[in-house]
What we know:
Shape: elongated
Order of helices and strands: EHEHEHEEHEHEHEHEHEHEEH
Largest sheet: 6 strands, parallel
Mean pLDDT: 95
Number of strands: 12
Number of domains: 2
Helix content: 40-55%
CATH architecture of the largest domain: 3-Layer(aba) Sandwich
CATH class of the largest domain: Alpha Beta
CATH topology of the largest domain: Rossmann fold
Radius of gyration: 19 Å
Number of helices: 10
Low-confidence stretches: none
Amino acid sequence: MIGVSQANLGEPWRVSMNREIQEEAAKHKEVRVIFTDAAQNSQKQIRDVEKLMNQGIDLLIISPNEAKPLTPIVQTAYRKIPVIVLDREIESTDYTTFIGADNRLIGRMAGQFIEQLLSDKGGEVLEIKGLLDSTPAIDRSEGFRETIAGNAKIHLVGSVTADWLRDKSEDMMKNKLLEWPQVDVVFAHNDPMALGAYKAAESIGRKETKFVGIDGLPGQWGGLQLVKQKVLQATFIYPTGGKESIQSALRILNHEANIPKRVTLSSTKVTGENVNEFVQANGSSK
C-alpha cells in the first residue's frame, strides 16, 4: 500500500501528477494507492502523513507544500518506511529518493528565452512567483534572476507572489500592470499564473505585454494550447514525475539494488516554432 501526500489540488499540474500516479499504479493489481490533499496547508500535510502512517502504508510519496515545516515529518516517516520526495525538496536528505526537474535550470532557460524575446532593445520584466517557501519557486526565481542580471538592458521592475494560483494572479496583476505600465514581459512560475496575468492585461486593454510560463500541460487550458493560441510566448514542460514515482516505489518495495538517491527529470522549451509537435504528441487539438 502506497500513500501519496499531495501539497494541493488547486494546480492543474498537481491534478495531472495524481492522474499519472493512478494510471501507472493501475498497471499493477497488487498496488493500492491512498491519496491525501493538503490544500496548500503545511500543518494539514503533517497530519495527512501521520494518518497515512497510521493506516499502515508500506511506502510514502510526498510532494511537500513547503520545505522547512515538512522536513521533520518526512524524517520521522523515513525512520520507519521508504520515502519518495516528489517535485519539492525538504531541508534534509533523510528520504529514499528524490524525483524532480532542475528548477534552477528551468529558471535560467526562461531568462535566456526572455533575453532573446527582448533582443538588443531590452525592456522591463515582471516576475510572478509561486509559494515563497516552496523549493521550485525559490530555485526558478534564483535561476531566472541570475541569468537576466548579466543583461544591463533588462530591468526587473518587481515581483508578486500568487501561490501558483490563476485567480490570485489575475486579481493581483490588474493593479500591478497599472502600477507598472511599461512592463514588456511577465514571467510566471507556472502557466496558470501566466494565464491569470494575461487575463488581467486583457481586462485593462493591455495588448503589448508578452507572457512566459512553466508546466506545458496538454488540454484546453494547458500551456501547450496557450502557446499555440499565442497567449504565451513560451512554456517549459515540467514533468510531474508521477509515473516515475510509482516505478521507483515498486523497485524499492521489491528490494532492488542501486536505487538512485536523486532522479532528475528533463524539461523542454516550447514556443510557437515547435508547439504543434507537442500538441500532436499529446493528442491535444482543441
